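Reopening this one. Same input as before:
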Amino acid sequence: MKISKKDALMWLEFFAELPEGEEILPHQQEIILATLAQIETAVEARNDALKAQIPGLKSLEGRTLYVGPDENFPKGCKSCLMGTGLSAIRKTNKCNIQCKFCYNYGELDRIAPIGEGMWEIGGTKFYERDIDLLLTMGNRPTGISYVYLEPFMEIEKYYGIIRKFADAGIHQHMYTNGLLCTEENLRLLGEAGLNELRFNLGASNCADKVIDAIAIAKKYIPQVGVETPMTREFLASFLPKKEKLLATGLDFINCAELHLNPNNLANYMGENMYMCRQGYLSPIISHEITFMIMKMAAEENWPVTVHDCDNYTKFARDLNLRAKEGGWFGASSYACEFPRIPCEAFLAVLRDVEFSFVEEEPLPVGYRPGDIVL
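Same output, byte for byte:
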């Protein structure tokens, strides 16, 4: 069903007004899914046109796109997309700031603790002394990542466990907003064996303090880069600081396509949005900013790798991980993060006179105004 934009708007306005507990029936689901498909098809057509303008665009075996030096492509991403990482290690349940794009927006004061002296790996709680036992099990990953939420809130607790995984030859990367980095803790991370540090530069609006920390980190840690959601605010703060950032000697910029969940959706209502493969919900502008930065990097010959960490990349990542874990053919946990599709999120793009569907056709009998849609 190639529903028209006009009909899609009419029906989604109706569905958006339904009470939260009212069941969406199969014919109604068809209309919603047809609308999502039409929006996604139009977005893909726009993205194809933008990609065609990027010189030297490269692919990592069809799983993601990038520009720039191959040797600077983040090894943590290769582990994630080609190996058996991303194995997340959780420790810190606190953050020093609150970002509007955070998946835990509005609930940072209610994040459950991991437990004193404990680490969460694969959903299991471990003491640091248990890592030696864990490493005897024979299913060690190619890489691990330290996430959840800001590790530098208690970075002194991380050095010992990093040293254990470094001795085991496992690639390790860590995420930080960079505001609590010092020369001392960055040096100690490097000495412990951290392979890669990723700065969420958008969290601080490209603060000079964080850019300075990136330069310091390069003295001690083999790979250092930026990984941040692509937002209008990030682009506005990034462009004036571009030269200073590149002068740090960083290796890569991971341009993450922002995807939204029930916690942060309200912060972006009014943006044109689409849903990728009935899974991640994202502002359309987020991926377009990635293409803008990749084009700039390629045309200006930046000495860094700029990586398109978009929804397709995350889809490929999950397929790879499930396959490596012995999952059935096609197994993936990639899915919509909402209990039911938030129709109201798509009203802005359906009302946008500059956004057009690629192909439209009249609604079939049973789906037209006045028909009973069950």
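So the earlier flakiness isn't reproducible anymore. For the record, The chain has one domain: 55-339.
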